[in-house]
Amino acid sequence: MELLKVDTIEAARDKLIQAMTEKHPEIIELNLLSAQGYIAARDHYSNEQVPDFRRSSVDGYAVISSDTAGANESLPVFMQIVDEVIMGNPAKKEIHTGECAYVPTGGMIPKGADAMVMVEYCEQFDRDQIAIYNAVPFGKNIVYEGEDIKKGDLVIKQGTKLCSKEIGVMACLGITKVQVYKPYKITIISTGDELISLEDKPSIGKVRDINSYSISAMAQNQGFDVLQTMVINDDEQALRKAVSDAIKVSDIVVISGGSSQGKKDATKKIIDELTGEGAFTHGLALKPGKPTILGYDNKENVLLVGLPGHPTAAILVFELLIIWLWKYITKQPEEKSVFAKITTNLAGAPGKTTCQLVKLIKNNMEYLAEPIYGKSGLITSLSSSEGYIIIEQNKEGLKKDEIVEVFYL
Amino acid sequence: MELLKVDTIEAARDKLIQAMTEKHPEIIELNLLSAQGYIAARDHYSNEQVPDFRRSSVDGYAVISSDTAGANESLPVFMQIVDEVIMGNPAKKEIHTGECAYVPTGGMIPKGADAMVMVEYCEQFDRDQIAIYNAVPFGKNIVYEGEDIKKGDLVIKQGTKLCSKEIGVMACLGITKVQVYKPYKITIISTGDELISLEDKPSIGKVRDINSYSISAMAQNQGFDVLQTMVINDDEQALRKAVSDAIKVSDIVVISGGSSQGKKDATKKIIDELTGEGAFTHGLALKPGKPTILGYDNKENVLLVGLPGHPTAAILVFELLIIWLWKYITKQPEEKSVFAKITTNLAGAPGKTTCQLVKLIKNNMEYLAEPIYGKSGLITSLSSSEGYIIIEQNKEGLKKDEIVEVFYL
Lengths: 409, 409
Fold this sequence. Notes:
The structure is a homodimer. By secondary structure, chain A is of the alpha/beta class. Chain A folds into 4 domains: 2-26 and 182-329, Molybdenum Cofactor Biosythetic Enzyme, Chain A (3-Layer(aba) Sandwich), CATH 3.40.980.10; 29-50 and 149-181, Molybdopterin biosynthesis moea protein, domain 2; 55-143, Molybdopterin biosynthesis moea protein, domain 3 (Molybdopterin biosynthesis moeA protein, domain 3, Beta Complex); 337-408, MoeA, C-terminal, domain IV (Beta-clip, Beta Barrel), CATH 2.40.340.10. In chain A, 19% of the residues lie in helices and 30% in strands. A 6-stranded mixed β-sheet of chain A has the order 7-4-6-5-9-8, with no helix packed on it. In chain A, strands 16-13-17-21-20-18 form a 6-stranded mixed β-sheet, sandwiched between helices. In chain A, α1 crosses α6 and α3 packs parallel to α6 (311-329). The longest helix of chain A is centred in the last third of the chain and has 19 residues, at 311-329.
């Protein structure tokens, strides 16, 4: 009963990290406009200060703030317009008491001025006379040199996913090329005599291949390069050939199905053979997800993963181990999650970590997590759920209304 | 002071929907393996039942459950092995009392049998004799016909984002082609004499163009087809030409900057001209985001959007109006959000909806939302935030420790 010698999730993760120590992910350089969704491969510090000049954050008039003291809607103060700052050009004239200059949003604040009055609070009388109906304090509507970004500031941390905000900051600093982690190249193989292709109508005893589709979608969602997906019958020879071929071009080869204790299971044998040292994980103390096999080919630097055949278990194990590994290695920050109230008591599984699918229900400024039951292997229990919760193996279970952390799937 | 005649977010959304009634998004057909991240354009019902035969969810022996009554670790019951079901093939022999048949995970349950005993609880003595150490109830480890999916079940709702779970369900049902909404084609134009390209070192008064990068990244993240991004000086002629050209090929043309009440602002004028009917929104009662202009070209069926020049305001308005519109039109379900405790009192803005950037902090099974302050236009206040909260215009403000809904940005 070899499958009972199983690893905890934590042990399997430790072994994965150890196996992958030699395999640093490659770093590639992308144009900033193409970097959306990639993971920054190094820290980025600013070489400049932003802004590099005192800038107005409104359309209006640059003034000496003390000149506006007491101004209000019924009692304006009057000022002399001495200049108009042209967008994208330096401000030329210095402002003295009683004087002001028009400055557009983003324009440079003239020397002498220390606040901006929004144009909405001004009324121009003639070419160079203006009434100001608003008293402004020192510094109002001005962004100072370096107030946004100082020279030497850490602006993008290694491991950050580059989205609109990060790409905006990099554009601001003139970073046109960005170094990102090259996503893994992955081959996904489904095995089983029962599997038929999607086009075929299943005859009795046969089912369509699900895992190569769902695992491929998960991999694509992380940006992985899915080299190939294929279905192989329970034919050890054919599977060995397919895995050997995939090893030559992939960073990760995933074989789903064929890893439980069935009579025809060749996955373990092939992973043992092809990795030299043999598989390092022969099962997980995880419900669902026990029939998981992990090995590492030191010669070709390829990770070999035997996933359970059950679609739900396959997705959960891929999420908890392989996507977890990618996030760990690329130094991505902790997962986004949601805290929710569990709607029912829930038993744990003795000696096993339980991964329970849940549906999230918004209810009066809080979320409820409703467990999705269903026998292992039901694809609909997966599709009707939004995320999962983890019940640690040393925990007996959860009580109704307990707060749980839900991770999106 | 025309900018004071502003629309609420709700009014602007209503006008957007009205303008777009004639412009149904196109529907395209994709191969299932390429559909990851797209939005389903119609409901999908099942034409089949899943599974189509009684299936085992474990490796083990199919038995008549009443035969196992009383079996336990010290007192097995003994049974005759009469068959081995081959994966992917029909089960041939019927099981009678005292008999059992080996069935692999996913294999067909023979007639007569009504439960499965996991192989871990069995010990084979000779070719056709087995000891069973576990009493199983009726139906144990069996998935019944149609238990997963019934004929006629709604399996994928219109508006669903197709990810691993949904693609898995479709694979299971043999759906190889899927109809999805064709994402918008968008052109993004930044305007302003102060803008220089990323490669240039800003001279005094100039800044690098941020918005075409950040808005492009947001659009890409929704799957939009970003046709072109460009920077145009404050030259009405050049801007009119660029927008006219873009209208011919785009679904949406975004012009950022040039929409506040500065002296050189041509965006409103050009949107008025090119839409025939004129812009329908001339400002938003939103902080930040007031200088927003919306118009619709009825002849070419193109939405014209003038975004604020401030990077934060531009991103927020694009999120609250354009991405909102895409999600509304493609019938996507409500946004994923997080409830969090606000860490400080927060004032609203009279007569305006406030969109406040926040950072999320995990704290003992709850999230705290910490407002990110900073003058409008600071790119770092954007990059250090994780999401935003909305303070409705009729709300005075928020009290410290009040629960708020945070939307990811």
